[in-house]
Task: structure prediction
Amino acid sequence: MGMEPQVSPFLRTAAAHAWRLLVVGAAVYGVFAVLGRFHEIGVGLFLGLVVTAMLRPVADLLARRLPRGVAVALTLLAGIALVLGVLAFVGEAVAGETTTLVREFRQGVDRIEGWLEKPPFRLRPDTLSDLHSRIAEFLSSHRSALLSKAVSGASEAVHVLTALALGLFSSVFFIHSGDRQWSWFCAQLPERLRPRWTLTGRAAWRTFTGYTHGIVLVAATNAILVGMALYFLGVPLAVPLALLEFVAAFVPLVGSPVALAVAAVVALAAKGPLTAAVVVALIVVIGQIEGHLLHPLVMSWAVRLHPLVVAVSVIAGAVAAGVVGAVVAVPLVSVAWAVFTALRDARRARPVEAPGTS
Result:
């Protein structure tokens, strides 16, 4: 009778971890796939949780002197007024710079054409004029396709408004009595599972709240830095570009460079290559400040993930559910890791208890 082959302890441990990682990966992919399939519901509930994380402390503060319902209503109305005020300010800034912006962009396009005609590109002037005619011909020949795209864009706007309405509606109940709703849910579970779900719910909400506060603070800091830099450089649309930076910062590692690249293009067309080079340098500086200063300091109360984990999470979320997945990926992974850590710590602390106390 032959002896059974000996399996290396390292291989056995690696195999045990491998299948667990596969199960976790499949579960994460399934969550993102569901979010992608029902993205309006997912986006609406996610926005409701974000609004709750931001406004519930204010509502709790007002509720010390006012009835809970009145405090929630005042908090939500103030938040809506703040958002609408920012959008109105941005719109006014764009409208005020329209004439100057059109003139500067025309001059910038002429400068770009002049650079392309010089070394090292040495393009012929007729090449650029031919490019203009081809673009005009493409627009005229694909007018119907562009109109259909515009119609589909209008339908997408309806989906966005639906998600916003769901987010606002759900945030009313989350802010008013979200803790009671979670307690009611835990009470419906078997008694032996209630402590575990209560523990994981607290850990998940603490992590999500910390991440939300942190990412908003990081995004606001980035937007202020970008807005001030573009304003002093004389780049047009400094306020809208700063708002774009604020929104893009919610996609870690990727959003901020993309927004600043748009600012660099605007600077190139309006102010020339020197200003555009300064904006490109700004991309590097703000990236370093965000990665090595803001995230380690501001995110200290939330779960700190390795940059590689953040990058993989963002890419996986984008592949599975597009922009929605890219935004939701990092907070979802952070919450999952916080829940795992809380359960692991509770399991380790359990043997310390004296026998018969449970």
